[in-house]
């Protein structure tokens, strides 16, 4: 008795219900998992550097509600250390910090070869008069604390790659194009 080529190839083990149906089911699940990556990306990790606990908690709450991972530093020394250790996708930094202002911190971040590719956004209480000063210092942009939550999140998303823009972007995109994969 001669075995055909198909019979000689071992099928991968797929659990107790081993067989063609199980193999197909596994392939189907793998395709679904690959498709799900488009809708369920790894969340962006955002480092918040803010000395005011109330402002810090408000920003962290808004970002976490939209699916971002946040971690924070209360001063510039802790911020530099965390940025080097944890490599965030984005840094949001208060301009007015206790010892070293946000401008000097942004300059340090932009001069560090290991950190210079991470976008740094200035957090200000009001719209800055001199945006050029922010750019020269090393900030990639700014966001005002006084903005509404949707504008704040949209500002943050602008500096993140599309796959890291959080579920707020996903929900907004889904409602715009009418494509709801959850149905």
Please explain how this structure is put together.
This protein has about 180 residues and is of the alpha/beta class. The protein is built from eight helices and five strands. The protein has helices at about 5-10, 20-40, 55-65, 75-85, 100-110, 130-135, 150-160, 165-175, and strands at about 45-50, 70-75, 90-95, 120-125, 140-145. The chain has a five-stranded parallel beta sheet with strand order 2-1-3-4-5, sandwiched between helices. β4, α6 (about 130-135) and β5 form a beta-alpha-beta unit. α5 (about 100-110) crosses α6 (about 130-135). The protein is globular. About 25% of the residues are buried. The model is unreliable at about 5-25 and about 170-175 (pLDDT under 50).
Can you lay out the helices and strands and say which pair or pack?
Elements: H1 5-8, H2 20-39, E1 45-49, H3 53-65, E2 69-73, H4 76-86, E3 90-94, H5 102-111, E4 120-124, H6 131-137, E5 141-144, H7 149-158, H8 166-177
Parallel strand pairs: 1-2, 1-3, 3-4, 4-5
Helix pairs in contact: 5-6
- N-to-C series of helices and strands: HHEHEHEHEHEHH
Q: Which structural class should the secondary elements be placed in?
A: alpha/beta
Strand arrangement across the biggest beta sheet: 2-1-3-4-5
The percent of residues in helical segments reads: 40-55%
Major sheet: 5 strands, parallel
Mean pLDDT: 75
Beta-strand segment tally: 5
Low-confidence stretches: 5-25, 169-175
Task: Tell me which oligomeric state these chains represent.
Answer: single chain
Based on CA atoms alone, the radius of gyration comes out at 23 Å
| SS field, number of helical segments | 8
